[in-house]
Structure formats: C-alpha cells, structure tokens
C-alpha cells in the first residue's frame, strides 16, 4: 500500500491544530487561526511544486501547469473553514488529500497532460458571516459584492476579515474563471452520512447535490383556559402542529430520495395553562430530484389541509427558500467509476443531502464529487473520524481519475 493516506493524515492532524480553543476544530473566515493555516498551507502547496496565489476572496490556489498548458484546467478543491466545534476532515480533507496526490505525481515525474488547480476555498460554511459559498462564488463569478459589508457578531466586516487573511477584496472580480478554460470541478469530501459505512465501502460517487425547500407554516386555533374549555370545543393549534410533524415524517419515510424535518416550532402563547392559540413552524424538504420534492410538497400541503380542517384549525404557509438540486456531470461520474473499478472496488452512487461548493461552481463548469466513508456518518462534530486506509483508497481513486480524465477530454 502507498503511503499517501498516511501522509494526508499527518497533514490533516497538523491542520487541525489551527483552531480556536475548545472541543473539535473551529476555524472561521479571517480568524487568527485561519490566517496562520493559510501561511502554512501556502508552504505546503509550494513544496508540492505548485505555482501559488491568493485571490481576492481568500482562496488559496495552487497550479500545476502540466505538459500542455494550453489544455483546459481541471479544478479540484474544497474548503478551509469549519463550523464552530466542527471536525478535522469536513472541507480540509478535500484540499490536503489532493495535495498529497499531486505532490506524489510531481515527485515521481508523472505530470498530467493538462493543468490542474487545487483550490482551498476560503469560506463555505458561512459560520462567521452567515453567507455560504463565498470562495466558490468568486471563482464562478457570482460573488455578491454587497456581502463585503456583512458584519460578524462583533461588527467586523467581511471585507476586513478578507484583508486580515492577506487578500485584496478589490480584486475579487479577477478570481472569476473563463468557462472555456475549465474542463470540470471535482471535490473530495467526507460523506457526512452513514451509507458507505453500512455497506462497508470506502468511497462513493455523488450523483447530485440535494435540492432544498423551506416553508414557514402558521397554524391558527383559539387560545383558551386549559382547565375550563371542554375537550370537544378546543381548537388547539399545537395538536394540529403535532399532526403536521407526523405527516411530514411519514411522507419522507414512504418516499425514496426524500428527507424532511420540522426543525423550528414556536407555540403561542407558550404558557403552561393556556391552550395553544397558534403555532409557527418551519417545514424543510430535501431531494436530489425536483420532481420528487415538488410532488411531495403538493401531497403534504393537501394532507395538512385535510388534517387541520378536521380540527377546525386555520393555517397559512409561505415558501421562503428554494434551491434546486445540482446534478453531477455524467462524464465526471463515469471517470470516477473507472478509477474505482481499477482498484477492484464496487461503485456505489449516492446523493449529497448537504450543500457544497459545487452548488456555486455548477454555473461555471461541470461538477462532480467523491465521498469518502466517515465514522458513524458524523460531521460538524469534534468526533468526526476517518481511517488512513480510506484516505489511501481515496487518494488512489483521485490519482487514477486524473489519468482517466485525460482520456475523457481527448
Ligand atoms: Zn464541507
């Protein structure tokens, strides 16, 4: 077995030390820890033979020109930042593992016939400024400059945070890539789910990044004395809401490729001896297929209407967010499949239930993702864990992908 997995783990362990104190890893955009990691990573990129630059959005970009610098560039990348008290692998694994692979190729004198850029995106999670996909939007040319004036909890602007990183926000527009010059975007990421572990597979090919819709729902009943109002005369909004929770849960259990949750619920007036007069709640549905998600929405709204009507409750709802899914390119999926089959491994296809930089990169180029197994499917948590063996298989898969990608682009 090669040592790429072990080398990657060493770098990942080092990267994890660049964290605010406390459990897990906390590295938010422009923090002192982020600044320090960026300085360190720049050296790692340089010693791997890359030509390195920092763009206006704080993305660290390493470029290996290959033997035909006029060929279209493959972009590989993931994010440098974490959620608060997150793990050691979400994001940064997709930077440092490819770095090890590219370094190894450089050391072995196996250059590629096309340029590769490895991008460490500055901010994907949006932990500090509540604005996700900052780095990838800059590459895609969709960065919204008004975001620079967004402030964190202490009133510091994003513009200042980027300057603290050593980036010059004035040149963000120059980070936008010419779609004609890019052949695709590939991200390696931990699965953040339990499927690969359950099936004892180290890697899986992502078919799509999920679509998401969120609704605000308000159920209106009648508040009243909890002791003196007879049961048959009550219009208890919370009892109605509990049915809605059950309906959504059951519909998602009964439908393939659909998940959903009621994550927020506010009871009005929220008093121990008052019948709930109103409930405000969120509904979220996710699916990699718009057709499935919209059909589920229609069914759910119909079921809610029936259930609440039977309880003489009124209701209103508003769709407040809808992000269409992004499909992964068939060409990238089949190239990943070839790379996995080369190793005699089973190809498993799965969709991503979480958002990723591909959501922004899709407007620039074909996107694809390779998922790596993680322990208990856990992410955004200090106990996030992966094995050296899985890192190694993932590294081998990328190495072979890079060769197959040359064939796929002839
Ligand atoms: Zn991530």
UniProtKB/TrEMBL annotation:
InterPro entries: Amidase_Cbmase, Bact_exopeptidase_dim_dom, Peptidase_M20. Zn(2+) 1 binds at residues 79, 90, 189. Allantoate binds at residues 214, 273, 286. Keywords: Hydrolase, Manganese, Metal-binding, Zinc. Pfam families: Peptidase_M20. One of its GO terms (molecular function) is metal ion binding. The keyword 4Fe-4S does not apply. The keyword Zinc applies. Gene3D superfamilies: 3.30.70.360, Zn peptidases. Binds 2 Zn(2+) ions per subunit. Zn(2+) 2 binds at residues 90, 125, 380. Its cofactor is Zn(2+); Mn(2+). Belongs to the peptidase M20 family. Homodimer. This is Allantoate amidohydrolase. It comes from Natronospirillum operosum.
């Amino acid at each position: 077995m090669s040592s790429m997995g072990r080398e990657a783990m060493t770098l990942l362990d080092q990267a994890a030390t660049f964290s605010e104190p406390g459990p897990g890893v906390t590295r938010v955009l422009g923090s002192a820890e982020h600044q320090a990691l960026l300085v360190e990573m720049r050296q790692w990129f340089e010693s791997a033979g890359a030509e390195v630059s920092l763009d206006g959005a704080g993305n660290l970009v390493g470029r290996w020109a290959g033997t035909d610098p006029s060929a279209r560039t493959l972009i590989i990348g993931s994010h440098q930042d974490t959620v608060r008290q997150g793990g050691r692998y979400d994001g940064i694994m997709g930077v440092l593992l490819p770095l090890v692979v590219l370094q190894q190729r450089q050391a072995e004198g196996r250059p590629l016939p096309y340029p590769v850029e490895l991008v460490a995106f500055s901010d994907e999670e949006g932990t500090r400024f509540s604005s996700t996909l900052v780095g990838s939007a800059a590459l895609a040319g969709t960065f919204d400059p008004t975001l620079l004036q967004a402030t964190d909890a202490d009133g510091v602007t994003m513009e200042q945070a980027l300057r603290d990183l050593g980036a010059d926000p004035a040149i963000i527009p120059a980070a936008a890539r010419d779609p004609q010059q890019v052949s695709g975007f590939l991200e390696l990421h931990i699965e953040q789910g339990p499927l690969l572990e359950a099936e004892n597979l180290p890697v899986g090919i992502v078919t799509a990044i999920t679509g998401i819709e969120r609704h605000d729902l308000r159920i209106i009943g009648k508040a009243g004395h909890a002791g003196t109002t007879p049961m048959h005369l009550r219009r208890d909004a919370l009892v109605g809401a509990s049915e809605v929770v059950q309906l959504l849960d059951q519909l998602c259990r009964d439908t393939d490729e659909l998940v959903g949750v009621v994550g927020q619920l506010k009871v009005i007036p929220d008093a121990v001896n008052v019948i709930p007069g109103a409930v405000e709640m969120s509904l979220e549905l996710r699916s990699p297929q718009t057709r499935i998600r919209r059909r589920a929405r229609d069914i759910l709204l119909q079921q809610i209407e029936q259930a609440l009507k039977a309880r003489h409750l009124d209701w209103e709802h508003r769709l407040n967010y809808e992000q269409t899914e992004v499909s992964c390119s068939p060409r990238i999926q089949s190239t990943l499949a070839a790379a996995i089959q080369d190793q005699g491994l089973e190809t498993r296809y799965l969709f991503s239930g979480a958002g990723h930089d591909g959501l922004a990169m899709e407007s620039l180029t074909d996107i694809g993702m390779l998922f790596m197994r993680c322990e208990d499917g856990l992410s955004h948590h200090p106990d996030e864990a992966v094995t050296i063996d899985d890192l190694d298989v993932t590294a081998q898969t990328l190495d072979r992908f890079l060769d197959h990608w040359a064939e796929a682009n002839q």
